[in-house]
């Protein structure tokens, strides 16, 4: 006899009005057992988790599907997910299609006005809406926003903007428009673009945007999806992953040169969030399928947790 | 390195203030995968499920632990559980200890005043509080009640009470005190004892109590835990389980003699609940571990679902 | 011509859905005049009053009827009553019926596991439900609870538990489940039994339970119904009742030996409540009919009021 | 020893912030016993009672004190009192002092512009504020209003206004400003003056104003304080009081001439209120002390109750 | 073709249930342009503005019409207006009509009991209701109150009351009854009469009443309508208007004798309000049409703004 | 002396946290007088107005500034504005820059996948965010959304999509995410792009989107900004503007051929909105500066109002 509920799964009158698309989870190899996840679900229900999405997890369709499935599941069991993203490789591709020559200064891209125009169109008009549509299709309800909307983020030129163009820092955060969304179990999907007080758009570092939002929302957790395994005690030894460390410890690792390069701004972002009251922050491995679930719903985790 | 969260799991400020006791789930053999359960969690979040607990699942400690684990898990992922129980074998044991001679009429026990006194003490003062303590220990928050409290159930003598003594029917249901509990994610645990308008306690059939409560609460689902596999097309053939049937179908099975004996009052109870607006009812196999989870979170189910 | 309202008195749609049973008040000899009670009703409307019920007032049916009538009346004119009770003589009677030999150590009863089982059954399953039924019959709405329900009280072994068995202290109070009840004009009736974190039930001193609940609820008043007239200046002289005294004064009386014996723990309980913010506490004479009304609704009072 | 509470009675932080003045009740001869009043308090708690005050009860200071004491007591035990008054003899006295010659037409006073000016000043600026001050002094909180305020009553000229001047009918009622007052346990005291759409004040019959307000508020009860015992079966026989009658019965009494003269408009006012949903109406004897309490809190009553 | 909306303007179901009377604005010569007023409307929307009305603006009908039009407009665009008034010349006129001889002491009127009676009748029963009717007619909703109502203002004898009679100071302010009115976009119109705890009415200075109300309401702005241009740097030079000054500056002007005479109590009233948290206060020229609008909705203002 | 408020205008703690930029209104030639606008502000305060923005008003910067100024002003005086826009000429320009050849069928553009990608990026990522930034800069708070966000609009292929590509009809509207925004005085700015149930984006006609949103929101008014004066009685005679017409009348004009061509779908859109409960609809002249203000705040209007 055929399944009894299947035909009925589209009829949720309450809160979750759309069924999860089953195929979304076809490749869900982690197989977290419900009962094992229970204590973590209990711990995080009703808590706000800000996830910065980018890097490899954005480039691979399979990894993207896994991230989308994870946040839908987490929202479904009662967590308040805020999803912040950058642009990934699509920006370069569109700049190429429009024959806008990349202009670099000391290895950093110069974001002139016409580049900024493309950045905004791609991030807000394409990537953001694609992510919103994927989440909606998977059964949760997403609302795409940028920092411009509701003055969520006000930008100011970063100190090196005279050289690098419209690269901005965050002058202020106003999460007013986010709260009713997460209170309604909606998932805000936020493109890291913001305007200054004159309405000029700026490109904002997505890690920074996620960290400042987590602080302004009093989040339980900030999670940065990256292309590394986490913080390694010995960068040569992939088996030397530091699973948990506090601010003091990680500052020592920076002094000792063990944390270096591109990891430093990510760690700094975590430290700033912790200093503003976020309870824990994690730098996790976005190259792993379902690393978000592993980080939140298992004791093992999927990278390095930095605590205050 | 030891688990990162374990030491922290007791610190839920929000809603779930006590950690699930891990050992509760040690024997959780069903191993329902979180992602597979997701569509069902979505479907039932925020919905009220009334569970009638009794029979074998009450007699075996292992089965009891499995039922407790299941309802804690279901409450934790957002379902509103109302847990109704009868007395099980403890009543007989205490009657024996007190040398109260069982008195039977046509095979039915006569509940005289002194028997009723024991029934109430055992159901309300022992079984109920034991279940509440088990649920609390497992990490959810239970509140034990009887039909007397808040006039939840008003009893009246059943037609045959002149012969059988203080065996009552339900004259009215007032679920006022239940709603704030389930709105707060608490689990009401209800002993099937009620008083009439003069304050005289009566023993109430627990299936009936569960069914009337489900109707008064506008529940999504009524589940009766029983000592059989469900409704069988052929009572001789355990493989002939009817997984889903509607009112018309099951009435036909009664007419045809396929549903008979002790199953008839259970089916009738389901039909009355459906007629009063409960969306689905299930008669499931309480002899199976985690049959509640199987019934609610899988398409397979754990018995027979009767629909309107 | 017959009374105009009588036939109509059952039709309260609002809040008070059941008529007061007139006979309840037949023996209401105090005859407090409505207009004289008015300033006190004004003073206490909407305030929380925790009443510890026990002793003689529990043993005599007439006194019990008077206490029930009083709390129904007080709830009806707008006070928020929380009613805490111990077990009275019924526990001994049931222990006798079950041939459980009382075991005493230095004059204190040893509560072993089988004694505790009976204590819980009698307090929660019999006394509590009887009180609930009496209040309901008198026209108010009572909800019976124990300290186990909703983790209202968490117990821990008292220092002398190694000798005395399951006699517990109160480790914590969580009045979450009480507030919606008293906000709805319901009367919580609380049996002084609680479980520890492992679910093991303990017998809790009912005075202590009432005092800690009063503190946790920020009550206006804690009233202990006792078998004495109150605190006497001269224990030989029943006319030397101290009507009002402050903490400093009553501590001096203990030093001077004027307050002694079983009165000391009651006074200490009052002092602890006052120290935690309860506004006034009273030790009143439960042997007097309607002493609760006299204490709350007259300036004369019915015992000794201790203030901060 | 002196009273314990007296010095404390001024300290009600909650709702009732001012003590009842004890002397107000000195002459409270009715002596309604609190316990006897209880079922009626239960019945009417939270219900809206509109009282029309006038006649003898307004002229005698002792009767006025008794009425004020009654409504303060009724508000204190939880009824929602709306107090509507006319002008009494003060209007004539002030017209006299200002040498405004009364002008009569067929025995009815002509309310010209200068008369209307005095009517408004006396009713609103003197009688109303005096009543408000008396209620406030007695410990409740009154708010004085006229039909002009918040467009509570909109007037239109009555059919005979061309001859009688500014005598108005009620064109519409908007009780918006009354509800937050009675929800806060305040007592609205309403002078029966209203303006038309052009702002011209009119004198409104106070019985009519009370009746229309009762209807607009969905009141439980409309009580008209009058100078008669109620409706008599035989106008010659004071012992023939009709305690309760329905609309049909009272219409018959009008046809039969048993109800006649000034009683007819009062009865008609009751009938209109009943037709608009007021549950019961009473015409009571304002010459009796505490007739309001007798009517509301005893089965005996203090006049004639007309029901729908 | 005739106007499309005109016939429809009476049909506001929401909040503003009555159309503005067009003719009210006929003489609106200031012609403030909507777009110019916008930043000020933005600034003051939802803020509480207490306006003291008296003097010339009360004597001239044209000025009165202009003030009424202004407050209706201000309430309509979202400001919360509280309107406090004294008595103007009407009191003298009525004292004359009643042959009550004015009695002066050192140039100050003695308010004996019979004078106070007239003051209350005129202020509360005539002036107040006239203002309420004018505002209602102009399309907003006014509610007339005195300090007696809801114990809004409690009076105490002023130090010189033994000589001057019933002239009172303000002992306390309880704005409970004002808040629901202004939250509903109603305009409270308050006559400056209050009673002491015994119910004795007193005449209260209207500037003082307005200032204390502004403080108790946490108002954004207190505006005193006066018969002067504001504070002049040089009293001989009308062109020397001080447009803005802080407390320190205005205290210096008093010391220097530049602020003197009747201006001193008005300035003191402003200083007291500022000290209690009112953000700005203004002394404006009530002889100018629409000075209220000019003060609130233009940068120019209409007098002197004193800031903290 | 310099302006008193200017320096202070940035300090709105309440609701309007950003000052209007004064220069925005420099060219505000209509000069609507505040007092003349008052009755219309009264009429529309708190009402929802859906504005479809497009055409000439989008192409000219001066007209765009005028529209932005108008909606900021309207929101500021309390109207709930929902702003729906299409793409204007920017889409073509970007298609050109990307060398995507326009493909026409019977004069209609074929929206293939790569065209749709550009449409979405331009509408959502560029035009929408530009409008949001302009409104924010002008002092109100805008939130940019598309039909994809929160499943605001679900698309389905339009009947001719097989030929025309991703041109969609509206299958359903869910305004859940709009309500908290307009309740908070935010201005939703909505790009007319929506996804079907599979997440595929479609281009939606902006008039249709505005009309369906107005219906779903129960709007007071739908306003379509167009490039014509409104409906003309005689298309040759610009002076023959029909200021107001009902559904029956305008259907007759279609039959008579007086309404033809591109005006027919606009009129049909209005009729559908009216049929679903929108109170009035207007087709106004977007080529006029401040036509929105003229339409809403004057009796003259700025085009044709169609009523039900």
Automatic annotation (TrEMBL), chains A, B, C, D, E, F:
Record bears the keyword Amino-acid biosynthesis: yes
Q: Which UniProt keywords apply?
A: Amino-acid biosynthesis, Arginine biosynthesis, ATP-binding, Kinase, Nucleotide-binding, Transferase
- Keyword ATP-binding set for record: yes
Where does the sequence pass through the membrane?
Answer: none
Q: Which domain of life is it from?
A: Eukaryota
InterPro entries found in the cross-reference section: AceGlu_kinase-like_sf (IPR036393), AcgluKinase_fam (IPR004662), ArgB (IPR037528), Asp/Glu/Uridylate_kinase (IPR001048), Glu/AcGlu_kinase (IPR001057), NAGK-C (IPR041727)
Q: What Pfam families does the record point to?
A: AA_kinase
Pathway note: Amino-acid biosynthesis
The residue ranges of the Aspartate/glutamate/uridylate kinase domain are 47-285
Entries under HAMAP family matching the protein? ArgB
This one is known as Aspartate/glutamate/uridylate kinase domain-containing protein
């Amino acid at each position: 006899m055929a399944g009894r509920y299947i035909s009925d799964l589209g009829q949720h009158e309450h809160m979750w009005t759309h069924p999860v698309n089953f195929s979304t989870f076809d490749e869900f190899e982690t197989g977290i057992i419900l009962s094992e996840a229970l204590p973590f679900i209990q711990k995080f229900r009703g808590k706000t988790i800000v996830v910065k999405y980018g890097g490899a997890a954005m480039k691979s369709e399979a990894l993207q599907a896994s991230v989308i499935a994870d946040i839908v599941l987490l929202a479904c069991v009662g967590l308040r997910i805020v999803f912040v993203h950058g642009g990934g490789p699509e920006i370069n591709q569109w700049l190429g299609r429009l024959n806008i020559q990349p202009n670099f200064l000391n290895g950093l891209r110069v974001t002139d006005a016409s580049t900024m125009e493309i950045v905004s169109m791609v991030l807000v008009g394409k990537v953001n809406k694609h992510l919103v549509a994927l989440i909606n299709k998977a059964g949760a309800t997403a609302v795409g926003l940028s920092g411009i909307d509701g003055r969520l983020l006000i930008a100011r030129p970063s100190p090196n903007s005279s050289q690098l163009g419209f690269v901005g820092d965050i002058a202020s955060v106003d999460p007013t428009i986010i709260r009713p969304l997460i209170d309604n179990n909606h998932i805000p999907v936020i493109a890291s673009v913001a305007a200054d007080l004159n309405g000029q758009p700026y490109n904002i570092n997505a890690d920074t945007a996620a960290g400042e939002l987590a602080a302004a929302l009093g989040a339980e957790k900030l999670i940065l999806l990256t292309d590394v395994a986490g913080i390694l005690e010995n960068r040569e030894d992939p088996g030397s992953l530091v699973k948990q460390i506090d601010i003091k410890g990680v500052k020592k690792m920076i002094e000792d040169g063990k944390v270096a390069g591109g990891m430093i701004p990510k760690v700094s972002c975590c430290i700033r969030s912790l200093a503003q009251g976020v309870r824990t922050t994690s730098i996790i491995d976005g190259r792993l399928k379902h690393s978000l679930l592993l980080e939140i719903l298992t004791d093992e985790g999927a990278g390095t947790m930095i605590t205050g």
